[in-house]
Amino acid sequence: MGETLQRLCWLIPLAPWLAALWIGVGYGVGRSRGEAGEKTTARAALGGMGASLLLLLALDLQAWMTGAPPGEVDFHAWLESGPLRIGFTFTLDRLALAMATLSATISLLTTRFSVHYLHREEGFQRFFAILSLFNGALLLLFLSGNAVLAFAAWEVMGVSSWLLIGYAFDRPVATTNAVRAFVANRFGDAGFLVGVALSVHWLGTVEWKALLSSAERLDTMQSGLIAGGLLLAALAKSGQFPFAAWIARALEGPTPSSAIFYGSMMVHAGVFLTLRLEPLILHAPLMMALLFLMGGLTVGYALVCGWVQSDVKSLLLFSTQLQVGLMFMACGLGWFELAGWHLALHALWRSWQFLTSPEFMHGMVRPAWKPPGWVQGQTRLHAAALQRFWLEPMADALLVRPTESLGRDAQSFDDRLVNRMVGLPGTAGAVASLADWEERTEGGEESWDVSAAAAGGRGVMGRLLERISHALHWFEERLVLRGGGEGLLSALHRVGVYFLLADRLLSRPRYLMVFIAVTFIVIL
Amino acid sequence: MHQLPILLFLPLLGALGVAFLPARWWTFVRPLALTASGGALLLAWSLLREFDGASASLQLVAHSVWRATISGHFALGVDGFSLPMVLLGSLLCFVAMLASAGIKERVRSYHVLMLLLEAGMLGVFLAQDWTLFYIFWELTLIPLFFLIERWGGANRHHAALNFVLYTMGGSVFLLISLLLAFDAAPSGTFAMEEMAVALKTLPVKSQVLIFLGFLIGFGVKMPIFPLHGWLPLAHVEAPSPVSILLSGVLLKMGSYGLIRAAALLPGAVAALQGLLAALAFISLLYGGLLAWRQTDLKRMIAYSSISHMGVVLAGIASLTAAGLTGAVMQMVAHGLAAGSLFLLIGLLYHRTHTREVSDYSSLTEVAPRFAFFTILAFAAGVGMPGTAGFIAELHALVGGFQRWHGWAVLLSLGMLVGAAYSLRTIARLFTGPTRPEMRSIPDLRGVELAAAAALGAAIAALGVVPAPALGLIAASVERLTLTLSGHL
Question: How many domains, in total, are found in chain A?
Answer without folding.
Answer: 2
